[in-house]
Amino acid sequence: MRKFPKCNHPKLCNPKKKERMITLKTIISRRTLVRIISFATAIIAVLAAADIMYMCRLSRAERSIEYRYQEAVEELAQSADKISATLTKGLYASSPRMMQKLSSELLSEASDAKNALTKLPVATSNLEKTEKFLSQIGNYAYSLSATAADGMAPSYEDYQTMSTLCDNAEAFSDELWSLKSKLLTNDRTITELFSELEDGGESFLADGLSTVEEGFENTPKLIYDGPFSDHILEKTSQMLENAEEISEDEAREIAANYCGLEPYQLKTAEYSEEGAMPSYRFTANGVSCSVTKNGGYVAYMLKRQNVKSSNISAEEAVESARSYLDSMGIESMTETYYETYNGVCTVNFAYSENGVTCYTDLIKVAVSLDDGEIIGYDARGFLINHVERTLSEPVLSETECQSDLSPMLSVISSQLAVIPSDSVEEKLCYEYKCQSTDGRSVLVYVNTETGEEEDILILLETEGSVLTI
User: Which residues are CB-contacts of 321 (< 8 A; sequence separation ≥ 6)?
Assistant: First the structure.
């Protein structure tokens, strides 16, 4: 085997020199490693700090969102408290001035509640009835304000409605405060809970909102919001404008007849009603009646009565209301819709002329289901809107207008009807009562001159009530 020659180079083959070179390389390697570790540690520290800062910001953002949601629930509960309190005050108010003040507050509170509702991360479909309730509160407040602006006192139905809405607002508030308390003590975030709610998950939040929605299922349809019923007091009455003025004693006789009392039992109220319908106002124990100064027509009559039982049906109540109008000599009125609540059936009558139903000319009669007694009468819609009409012949035929209805509807019956528009102008329409493909009863109003759909209402027929939405 060949051997390599021995190295005798003084620099390359010096063992001590070779050892020093190895030691130097080791030192350099260690320094490099330390530098690498130092740089790596620094980078990790920077990244960790950035991550911590990001997490802190994210945490602050999440806390901010959570706080806003908590705040929205609280705002909604507080608004419900205020609505309940204002409606309660309304039950004790009698002067138009006070009612106008409370109506303004109610309108503002309903707006605040709707604003708080929009801040919650929940689809409106999950709170449809809640949103509708708050909208009704706002619209109802506007209606009360308009009535009060004309110097009119609240009607019997107004007090009934305020009482009902007050109960609903109070229950709404209680459930919201309970929900707020559970959200504060729960380990999970509101964002997570609402996210699960959208996915159909079950939790105390889902149960709470479901309870809130169910609380509005029994809310009776507001009569003012019924079919074309609240264009009342928005114009001067032609019927009263040229009528002869009567004396207070004559008005007292008329009021006594409507109330079933003797004239001496009625006292003149502290203030008379002015505005668009100047009237004498009389009171007795639990009875209030207003008679117009021009023409001597009864504008409204109401009796305070706590109905404790229901001994007659809604259909019998409708007949009692009809008999009452007949006994008062009020003719050409057709019952349209009625509502039963708290033992009282309120029947809407519309004026009918030559087969045309005038939904502008309304009279409401409230009947006790205890014994059939008439405890409320409101003819203000009729007195304000009724005129001797000369209705023009329809430009379009009934068949022509019907041909443009939705294919989802089948016509059951039709008739001519006069309805108001947003501008208080009356419009002659064909009223089509239809059945939808999903079994609902629907009313469609088509302008006889233009063929345009003027309004669509869904007819709700339940035990004791026939209403529209």
Answer: 335, 345, 347, 349, 365, 367, 374
